[in-house]
Design goal:
Number of strands: 2
Number of helices: 19
Shape: elongated
Transmembrane segments: 104-121, 160-181, 235-260
Order of helices and strands: HHHHHHHHHHHHHHHHHHHEE
Subcellular location: Membrane
Main location: membrane
Pfam family, one: DUF747
Distance between the termini: 100 Å
Strand content: under 5%
Organism: Betta splendens
Largest sheet: 2 strands, antiparallel
Length: 572
């Protein structure tokens, strides 16, 4: 009985062992089949796996099977939806750039036109009124501590600068300059034109500082301690600058005139190709929103200056052909070609800069609102600068040299003889005044709309920034973001006073010295550095290196940046 039970149990164990081995073999065969299926998809056969002796048929290794697999192979774009959506948005942004950029360019063009027409229309009238006040005020008695208001002093200085520089420009022979430039080779003229463009930017940068220094020196309150060389030296510096800058622009216009009058148009083609070199120098650099704002302002100024240069070229050519209308239509294709190349280069440049730096096309609306804010703020009673000076600082466009050159060319090209000519000049002047007034009204209304859409009305009532408050605010901002490690705090104690306590005292002093200004949502709107700027930390010049005392880079407000605070083509 016992033997039969033991044999029964042994048979059951053997059956279970055989079942387990059978299941293991079945699973192994399934894995081998799956591996064979993968290798067949790739077009190869595994001849050594599983010890198989069966050979693959030649049809499995055929070219037809490989081609069939390539033709029927599929993939699914929705598996990477975010990537392809981003690519599509970039395409849409590039398509929106021309429209948004041209809106900004047109608005900026009329801003420059308004400042340019001011020199011809309202500035002479303001100078005459200031001189009448200066002459009649001693007869009527002094009504105040000043003979003239600060704005009137600046207007009189501008008028004297224009008169003196025009008398100096009358001794410059335009015809001799034209023939001197025309005798040069094409390559030499191309180099000269590039040098003139660089010199124009340098002159504009330093020239506005010279003019601002003159205005402030002439209107600075007398009770302050004298810290300048005097009004007369500053005045002669301003006269010299305006004269030299006008000569520089005259050489530019003469070079462009030579290019228009060349027989094979090779110089004009080379000068137009110079615009496309600008793409290479700008597109492949890192740009932030503030840098792009500076470059946009520079493009507006450059485009407006080119229009005035083309106007001067047309006037000189029409004079040489006795104002024949047929010759004007001969010049039109070249003029259109120059303008079209300038517009195309600007569109391509801005489209790829926004693409490579991941900047939205809506940023041009912010730039337009910032320019509109300058216009609206200059019309207030508490304005601290003239509008033309504000445009000069923002865009680097100084209208005095360009207006002086245009007056010189017009007076030499158009002969005024008889009373009928004088009546025509008077009507033309009245027409310019009408254009200036209408342009100012439309610009002011449009600017108010832009400022309202950007929610920037509250900033119009902020007081103008002073030197003391700005320094105190910047000092408070720097001390606000000081980070000191525990080790440095322990080792930097000198005389029982730690660096942390010193910084806290400095912060409290700065906050108490700085006036409290009203804040609004427009502060957040106008502060446009990239999001990565919040994580950037820079070292200070306190002598601590490595992990020493560090600061966060201060954010730049668009309203606090003029044309030459950050150069458009330089990344610090």
């Amino acid at each position: 009985m016992a033997d039969s039970l033991s044999t029964g149990l042994g048979e059951e164990k053997e059956k279970e062992k055989e079942d387990r081995e059978r299941d293991r073999d079945a699973a192994k065969n399934e894995r081998n089949k799956e591996k064979d299926g993968v290798t067949e998809t790739l077009g190869f056969s595994d001849r050594t796996s599983g010890g198989r002796d069966k050979k693959r048929s030649l049809s499995d290794l055929s070219l037809i099977r490989f081609i069939t697999t390539e033709l029927t192979r599929g993939y699914f774009l929705e598996h990477n939806e975010a990537k392809y959506t981003e690519r599509r948005e970039r395409v849409y942004t590039c398509l929106r750039i021309p429209k948004e950029l041209e809106k900004l360019m047109i608005f900026g063009f009329f801003l420059c036109l308004d400042a340019f027409l001011y020199v011809f229309t309202l500035l002479p009238l303001r100078v005459i009124l200031a001189l009448i006040r200066l002459i009649t005020l001693p007869c009527c008695g002094f009504g105040g501590s000043r003979l003239l208001q600060p704005a009137q002093v600046c207007d009189v200085l501008k008028g004297f600068i224009m008169v003196i520089c025009y008398s100096m420009m009358s001794y410059v022979d335009y015809a001799m300059m034209y023939h001197l430039i025309r005798g040069q080779s094409v390559i030499k003229l191309y180099i000269i034109y590039n040098m003139l463009e660089v010199a124009d930017r340098l002159f504009s940068s330093f020239g506005q500082d010279i003019l601002d220094a003159l205005y402030w020196t002439a209107t600075e309150p007398k009770e302050k301690k004298r810290a300048h060389i005097g009004v007369i030296p500053h005045f002669f510096m301003a006269v010299l600058y305006v004269f030299l800058h006008a000569i520089l622009i005259m050489v530019q216009a003469t070079t462009l005139n030579v290019a228009f009058n060349s027989h094979n148009k090779s110089l004009l083609t080379i000068m137009m190709s110079n615009n496309f070199v600008e793409i290479k120098g700008s597109v492949f650099k890192k740009f932030e929103k503030n840098n792009l704002f500076q470059m946009s302002n520079s493009d507006i100024k450059e485009r407006f200056t080119n229009y005035i240069l083309l106007l001067i070229v047309c006037l000189r050519n029409m004079e040489q052909f006795s104002w024949n209308p047929d010759h004007f239509w001969v010049l039109c294709p070249d003029v259109f070609m120059v303008i079209a190349s300038e517009v195309a280069v600007d569109i391509v440049k801005h489209a790829f800069i926004t693409k490579f730096n991941d900047i939205s096309a809506d940023v041009y609306g912010e730039y337009r609102a910032s320019l509109a804010f300058d216009l609206v703020s200059s019309r207030q009673k508490n304005a601290y600068t003239d509008y033309s000076d504000s445009v000069s600082r923002r865009m680097g466009f100084i209208p005095l040299p360009l207006a002086l050159l245009l007056i010189r060319v017009v007076t030499s090209s158009v002969k005024i003889q008889g009373s009928l000519s004088l009546i025509c000049v008077l009507l033309f002047y009245l027409g310019m005044i009408t254009l200036k007034v209408l342009n100012s009204i439309v610009l002011l209304g449009t600017s108010c709309v832009f400022v309202k859409e950007a929610n920037m009305e509250e900033k119009l009532f902020d007081p103008p920034p002073s030197a003391v408050s700005s320094r105190a605010n910047s000092r408070a901002h720097r001390n606000k973001h000081v980070h000191i490690s525990p080790q440095q705090e322990a080792t930097s104690e000198i005389g029982g006073i730690s660096v942390a306590s010193d910084n806290s005292q400095t912060t409290n002093m700065a906050e108490s010295a700085a006036p409290t200004l009203p804040k609004s949502d427009s502060d957040t709107f106008l502060t446009t550095p990239d999001e990565e700027d919040d994580d950037k930390i820079i070292n200070t010049d306190t002598g601590l290196e490595g992990d020493g005392l560090k600061l966060r880079a201060p954010k730049k407000d668009l309203l606090e940046i003029d044309r030459f605070t950050i150069c458009g083509n330089r990344i610090d």
